[in-house]
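Can anyone check this?
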Amino acid sequence: MRSPLGSAKAEGVLQLIQLSKQFGSKVLFENVSAQIAARSRIALVGPNGAGKSTMIKMLLGHEGCDSGDVTRASHLSIGHLAQELPKFEARTILEEVMRLDGRRERLQNAKKDLEDDFAESHEAASDSEKLERYGRILEELESLDEWTLESRARQVLSGMGFSEADFSRGLSEFSGGWLMRVALARVLLAAPDLLILDEPTNHLDLESLLWLENFLQRWRGAFLLVSHDRGFLNRMVTEVWELDARRLTVYRGDIDSYATQKAERMAVLTAQYEGQQARIAEIEDFVRRFGAKATKARQAQSRLKELDRMERIEMPEDRSQVRFRFPPAPHGGREVVTIQNAGLAFGEKKLYRNINWVLQRGSRVVIAGVNGAGKTSLLRLLSGAYQPTEGVLRHGHEIKVGYYAQIQAESLDLSRTVLQELEAVAPDMPISRVRALAGAFLFTGDAVDKKCAVLSGGEKARVALAKLLLSPANFLVLDEPTNHLDMESKQVLLEALQDFDGTLVLVSHDREFVAPLVDTVLEIIPKAGGSEIIPQIGSWDDYLERKQKELSEREARLSSLPGASGGASSKSTPLQQAPQTAAPKGPSNNQKKAWEKEREKSEADIAKLEGRQAELSGLLSDPTVYADKTRAMALMHEQRELEEKLLKLMDRWEELCGLLG
């Protein structure tokens, strides 16, 4: 017999059944159904406002539905990374990550309280209820792999880009981007059955992103991702949930496959819609012409009934997309930037030393390096926002810089409206042209009068890009320009930069965005006395390949350390057990026979329950079942009870297997 371990969840750890949700008059989705299996790899996509955030809240149990149901496997654990920074208390980053979601701390406190009771009172030590509770606590702590938790926490934090010295530093010493990495590390270390990660790559550098991909590829549980990084999703997912036009459509395959399937589906839907509209027009024309004539009245009524019976095909909303091109680059000098023996320091901290580099006209450069190495500071140097504290940096003849800051609040006056912010860049341009440009970036009508302070991250990014177009540049300096852009806007920006005829230097963790744009990789190598900046030999793809190889070698070294674990498993087994003071006496032959008999009965019971589970899964996957709500709810209730019985039987079966060797 195959091991039943995990089979209780094989049919689905979480199911959405005919879900509907609306806020006021706005309907987000109607009668949507889907299933997350034990090893699902899902991307949740859809336009802004389609209800992705609400859907995630419903999966987590934080938001109710207007109708339908969300069913979860018994004891299902879910780990969630939100886009918002969580609140942290005064701890070191290692302590915070090892807290997991607070569960370990609660279990340890409960264990200590019971041990204190046992030590103080003989009655407590013989209290069967307390002993049973103590046993359950020990089992839960064991399921957290308590023996190797610290070594695994160190591995995950190292993967997130933290150094050994960082582990004992307080959380208050780190910026928001680094704290988001702590939050991600905590979720990953908890090893839940289902991961829900909302934009997990936003604050990662290339090395950490590669590590996260390797980690998720080994993940034994399920995960659902929301991300605008197409390359990341292509590597990670095998299923795409698209939430749009009040429907949830499930596509099999990665993001590229989804795009192809959607285009094919839209072509078929468009043809059906046009055919239906032609038929509707034909019927309405017939009724208009002959409805009043006695000889044709019956036919007219018949066709009106046909119209009433017709299920109207709805086309998804035609959404506008950002559209723009960079203006021709003004002519400038051959040497765009010349740097000689330059350095940059902030107080006693020396960021760079001895930089010597000449940037030639027409170059297209990506600056790479770990977070904290100083990529943004180097961009500010190149743009002229910073001046070197030693050495020389000068721009060439007639060089006009266009700088896009990673944090848009740095480049926008938040007290201005969108229109005022654009007018300030080009005060002599006719207002009609400024409005037209705003419209190209989807700011139309009253949207141009919104204050920059209330704009979303994506809207601020669009304003910053529009400003670049209002002041023609021949040297673009871009810091993470894709961070807040959706996939469609990102593609438009990529095409515009490919057509740009000036010089380009950028920082971006989006590999697919960078690949077609650059011809040179400049890597920042952190050093104690000031980082070095080294031009790399080879293409961007060569650089990525080298980084992947370095990551594999580092992980191989880490995994060879005592107590190390791969980290991507859920519910793994402790590698080291507490030392035994004395070898316990083995069980008698009669005891072994009793265990063997119990195991055989467990296997028979498990097989029987799994058979019924398959029947229930087949019934619940039939949409007609939900016409009878009472029956559907009864089947779902039976399914939940059956899952609980199976889990208990499997736990006991595993225990018996361990006892019998």
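Reply from J.R.: I decoded it. The radius of gyration is 31 Å.
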